[in-house]
Amino acid sequence: MQITSFDEALGRLEGLDAWLTALGIVPKNDRWHKAKEVVRQAKEQRKAFESGGARAFIANYVPALFDAMEITEILRAFSGET
Q1: Residue 72: which residues within 8 A CB-CB, separation 6 or more?
Q2: DSSP 15
Q3: Distance CA 77, CA 27 (A)
Q4: pLDDT confidence of residue 58
């Protein structure tokens, strides 16, 4: 497992639908897509907090980070494969 920033994770996750489509898989609103949204929220939350804002609750934060980690590792390993 590698350390990944929110920016790197989002960059990889942005390519998820194109990769799935290239494999003949129709993208759907699954846990990986929900994880992408949580990572996006976490990035925005960190930026707001570092600017002096209050912390806000992000539902399913930890499970979504594990899901995001899982798919980013899969994309890192196999995104060039057909």
Answers
A1: 4, 8, 9, 12, 13
A2: T
A3: 19
A4: 92
The SS3 assignment for 51 reads coil
Distance CA 72, CA 82 (A): 17
Would you kindly state where each structural domain of the chain is located, as residue ranges? 6-78
pTM of the model: 0.79
pLDDT in tens, 36-80: 999 999 999 999 989 998 888 999 999 999 999 998 888 888 888
C-alpha distances in angstroms, 61 versus 24, 35, 43? 30, 8, 12
The pLDDT of residue 5? 85
